[in-house]
Amino acid sequence: MNLKRIFGALLTALGIGGLIYCAVLFVNASGGESDYKALFIYGILGFVFFIAGISLIRTTKDES
What we know:
This protein is an all-alpha fold.
């Protein structure tokens, strides 16, 4: 297995984890400004990691 694919899978898993944590923060938000900052930060980072991981997996050629 290619090292780039492993790194892409790791980035994808981190992105999914960030998006799930963002969803948990959204459900438990009480309306404070710090809640929205954390929600925004984890949501954006999760989305970027997820997209980067998926594109890294898709663009890596499978060589044997």
